[in-house]
């Protein structure tokens, strides 16, 4: 059984941050669960384009308000607490945060915890 406390983990190297967002990675590839699980906080007023070409991601909005745009179709969906989205087609998307937003996120395959977004908004696929 794995037990981790978000409040403790955010003071360790499991807290990763970049421009206007931070993520506390509670489960990683090394935990052997087949997915990774993160709590991600994104600053109010920020906009981010991501394209996870090598990973599937599901995201549950815990708090905040914003929107997600599917870059292939131009379709925009409102995000608020209780809304989930899943990038089941490796969808390139733009996330716009009107307020600070907190998300619970799962990645498959799991990330290792050392990834950074590449120029195209993706994570590289780590060697096993």
TrEMBL record:
Pathway note: Amine and polyamine biosynthesis; ectoine biosynthesis; L-ectoine from L-aspartate 4-semialdehyde: step 3/3
Q: Which reaction does it catalyse?
A: (2S)-4-acetamido-2-aminobutanoate = L-ectoine + H2O
Q: Which SUPFAM superfamilies match?
A: RmlC-like cupins
Query: What keywords are annotated for this sequence in UniProt?
Result: Lyase
List, in alphabetical order, the GO biological process terms annotated in this UniProt record. Answer: ectoine biosynthetic process
Lyase found in the keyword field = yes
Q: Name one GO molecular function term.
A: ectoine synthase activity
EC number(s) from the headed UniProt entry: 4.2.1.108
- Name the Pfam families for this protein: Ectoine_synth
CDD domains for the chain? cupin_EctC
Q: Which HAMAP family match?
A: Ectoine_synth
Q: Which family does it belong to?
A: Belongs to the ectoine synthase family.
Q: What does this protein do?
A: Catalyzes the circularization of gamma-N-acetyl-alpha,gamma-diaminobutyric acid (ADABA) to ectoine (1,4,5,6-tetrahydro-2-methyl-4-pyrimidine carboxylic acid), which is an excellent osmoprotectant.
Q: What is this protein called?
A: L-ectoine synthase
- The gene designation is ectC
């Amino acid at each position: 059984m794995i037990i981790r406390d978000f409040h403790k983990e955010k003071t360790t190297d499991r807290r990763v941050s970049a421009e206007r967002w931070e993520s506390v990675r509670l489960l990683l590839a090394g935990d052997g669960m087949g997915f990774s699980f993160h709590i991600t906080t994104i600053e109010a007023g920020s906009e981010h384009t991501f394209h996870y070409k090598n990973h599937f991601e599901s995201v549950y909005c815990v708090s905040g308000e914003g929107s997600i745009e599917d870059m292939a179709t131009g379709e925009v969906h409102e995000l608020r607490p209780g809304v989930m989205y899943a990038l089941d087609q490796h969808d390139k998307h733009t996330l716009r945060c009107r307020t600070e937003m907190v998300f619970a996120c799962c990645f498959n395959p799991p990330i290792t915890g050392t990834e950074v977004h590449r120029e195209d908004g993706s994570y590289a696929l780590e060697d096993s």
